[in-house]
Structure formats: structure tokens, C-alpha cells
Amino acid sequence: MSQNSNSNLFLSIGKPLKDEYGRAVGKVASFALTPSGKFDAVFIEFSDGTFLKQPMEQLKFNGAEVTLISKNKSQASILCDQIPLIWRKDQALKDLAEKRKISPDLYQEIHNNFEGVLNQLKKDAQVLSDEISKEIARCDEEIRTLNYAVVHLELEHEIGKIGDEAYRSVFVLLQENLKRANMEKSDIELAKSKLSNILLGDSSHSEQKTRTLAEPINEAPELPEPPVVVYVKEIGKAGI
């Protein structure tokens, strides 16, 4: 988040807080600032009355308007950047060692550090992927409930128990919520797909590395290509 207009952020205090899909989730209560005056976090009163402290990176400010960014989507984006970066650095380090630009001992020390970081990132990615699966299931249940609500609304309107004006008003409301739920599901499925492809790409290059090490040492193996990340949206159950 840009800190160019720090003073303007105070305009958002007490203002409604929405998620990325336009749903009201609470309001901004206060900010936490560092001794130097930099905005560090924001205190939010959520709709259920709970107060939580959220990092600034999870919020998007547009004047007095504030949008809460999905934590899972934000973390997935970070991991999808970090995992390939650490892998490429480790491959570059190996290249330097093969060219005898660094000593074997130094190579091994730095390689171990990279490997430790990479393994931890992959564990974090797997945990996050499981959390996203729960979010997808929640979206599926919400979409299912909204579809049932639409069907029952249509039935009661058809037999004359609900008037035209009330019917139109509620129908629009249900359709708007269906649109939001389907957008959210689509977004988090894409985030899960990106994580899955990152992990699959890393597994593929690990297998290639194992095969390379098994080859005769008199053949100079070429460095494997960096893992290719193909963003493929997973197709879930139909929302309609």
C-alpha cells in the first residue's frame, strides 16, 4: 500500500469497510503507527462486533473508501513469487559453483540455506492450499443456499403469495449475492490453481535433478529450465 498520502488515511476512520466483492464486513476503528509516523496496521471492528488488527498490506485505500483484501489470496500471491525466486537463486548458485567461481564449502552453506527456506515455503503453500479448499467449500455452500432461495422465491411468486414488487426487489438482491459468491469462488480457485502449479513445477524439477545426479559424471548435465508456472483455473461445481 502506498504511503504517499498518510494523512488522508485518517479520513477512513469510522467509515464502512467492504471486501473485494462489495460486501460490508465492518468499519475502520483506528490505526497503529510506528514511532516515525509510518502506518503499520489498522484496527477493524467487524460486523460481528469483534476487533482485529490487520496488516496494511491487506487493505486497499481510495480516499475514504477502504477495501479488505482476502488474506488467502494475498498470501498465495506472495508464495507464488517467492518459491520460483528462491529456486532460481539456488540454480544460479549451482551454476557459479560449477564454474568454480565460489568454493564448494561456501556453495554448500548457501545451498543449504536456500533449501531450508524453499522447503518451508512449500510447507506454507500446502497449508494455505488446504485453507483455500475450505474457502471453496464455503463458497459452494453459499451458492447452493442462494440457489435454493431463488427457487423458493420463484415458487411463492408463481402461486401468488409474494407480490410483484417484493419479488423483483428480493430477486435482484439474491442475484447480486450469487454474482459476488461466484466471483469469490472463481478468484480463490485461481489462487489455489497457481499454488498447485508452483508446487507441481518444483516437484518436476526435483525429479529432473535426481535423474541428472544419477547420470555418469563425465557428462556435463545442462541446468534444468526454471519451473514453468501455468495458471490453469480449476473448474468447480456449477454455481447455477
Structure characterization notes:
The protein is elongated, with a radius of gyration of 25 Å. By secondary structure, it is an alpha+beta fold. It folds into two domains: 6-69, PRC-barrel domain (SH3 type barrels); 72-214. It contains three helices and six strands; from the N terminus they run ββββββααα. The longest helix has 55 residues, at 104-158. It has helices at 71-98, 104-158, 164-214, and strands spanning 16-19, 24-33, 39-46, 51-55, 59-62, 65-68. α1 runs parallel beside α3 (164-214) and α2 (104-158) packs antiparallel against α3 (164-214).
> How does the helix and strand content classify structurally?
alpha+beta
DSSP helix fraction: 55-70%
Largest sheet: 6 strands, mixed
* Uncertain spans: 1-5, 210-240
Mean pLDDT: 83
**Overall geometry:** elongated
Helical segment count: 3
Please tell me how large the radius of gyration is: 25 Å
Explain the layout of strands and helices.
Layout: E1 16-19, E2 24-33, E3 39-46, E4 51-55, E5 59-62, E6 65-68, H1 71-98, H2 104-158, H3 164-214
Parallel strand pairs: 1-6
Antiparallel strand pairs: 1-2, 2-3, 3-4, 5-6
Brief digest:
By secondary structure, this protein is an alpha+beta fold. The chain is built from 3 helices and 6 strands; from the N terminus they run ββββββααα. The chain starts with 15 loop residues before the first strand and ends in a 26-residue tail after the last helix.
List descriptors.
single chain, 3 helices, disordered N terminus, 240 residues, alpha+beta, SH3 type barrels, 2 domains, 6 strands, 6-stranded mixed beta sheet
